[in-house]
Amino acid sequence: MTDITLAIVGATGLVGKEILAILEERKFPVKNLVLLASKRSTDTVLSFNGSSIKVKELTQDSFQNVDIALFSAGSSISEKFAPIAAKSGTVVVDNTSFFRMDPSVPLVVPEVNKHALKHHNGIIANPNCSTAQLVMALKPIHDYAPIKRLVISTYQSVSGAGKEAMMELENHSRYLIQGKVADPKEFSHHMPFNLIPQIDVFEDNAYTKEEMKMINETQKILETEIPITATAVRVPVFVSHSEAVNIQTDKPVSVEKCRELLTNFPGVTVLDNIQEQEYPTPRDVSGKDDVYVGRIREDISQKNTLECWIVADNLRKGAALNAVQIAEELIKLPVNVA
Ligand SMILES: NC(=O)c1ccc[n+]([C@@H]2O[C@H](COP(=O)([O-])OP(=O)(O)OC[C@H]3O[C@@H](n4cnc5c(N)ncnc54)[C@H](OP(=O)(O)O)[C@@H]3O)[C@@H](O)[C@H]2O)c1
After folding, report:
1. Which of 80, 213, 222, 304 has the fewest CB atoms below 10 angstroms from its CB?
2. What DSSP string runs through 179-231?
3. CB 63 within 8 A of CB 85
4. What is the pLDDT of residues 77-125, one digit of tens each?
5. Which of 257, 337, 242, 237 is nearest to 298 (CA)?
């Protein structure tokens, strides 16, 4: 199919702009591109494939003749507008958390579970950024030696919280160096030169919503009830999330075997040479498509358990790239996109 009319809802945001860049890079077959955002952005013009396209205000009528819409404008926008789009025949790929745990909505990372796409009802969910990179590294290990338990600690960049959060880190870091202090708006505490062990709100079980998203979404995508515990931490890094992950399997997996499994998995790069101090860092991985894994080692405290360090660009594999990959899979299913 070469004549797709595609809409980006939230086109002026961090994820929306990354989607625009990735559609261009991957030569997605767009015939018409509709850029949608809030009323605030109606004077904005964005460039795509050498053309200038004016951003329009999102309304109930925005989806006429739109084949696929990639939503990244927040949960409340998806809650209201995704069903309207789906009803008008548009297939929605939603980057927000609103539909992810809805049993009728597939939650998809194409390399891991693209089979789930076949059963969509007009809305497909993109996982949380930390989940997407996690399941990419877990899938080949889980297929070889079923995972029995996971302990995850994340180090998540501020771009995961949107463009205002990125600007706050930049501005407040500058103020701090100048000896001034500004009150945090986007974060619960000062972000520069600090760590915040809270992403999103706390739930009744004392885990944060972000931690529970990672737990529930990983189980949904891997189609298993693996016991998982997680601590999600916001760090003063602009782009790319890092994760220290402890993986207990039901049979031994050597470090060499783990490297081999990950190396052979599409979209994963192993960067693991401690003699040369080579391992992924968020700075090096930003702007890259792959999920990078390093520091692979046997847990000295427990049998059949590996430790590893997983880093990926949260705006790419964690959001925009995964959404575009889903759209690429959708256009191979002619029955879903007429
Ligand atoms: N950042 C990540 O790593 C990441 C990863 C996975 C999922 N997500 C999800 O993706 C969504 C967007 O994230 P982001 O980081 O791109 O946020 P962002 O940079 O703050 O951008 C938000 C976008 O939503 C638009 N928007 C806000 N209110 C709107 C309204 N009333 N009507 C129409 N458009 C509206 C904004 O348009 P204006 O410019 O006009 O305000 C902007 O385009 C969030 O739900 C987030 O949870 C983000």
Report:
1. 80
2. T-----SSSSS--TT--BS--S-B-TTS-BHHHHHHHHHHHHHHTS---EEEE
3. yes
4. 999 999 999 999 999 999 999 999 999 999 999 999 999 999 899 999 9
5. 257
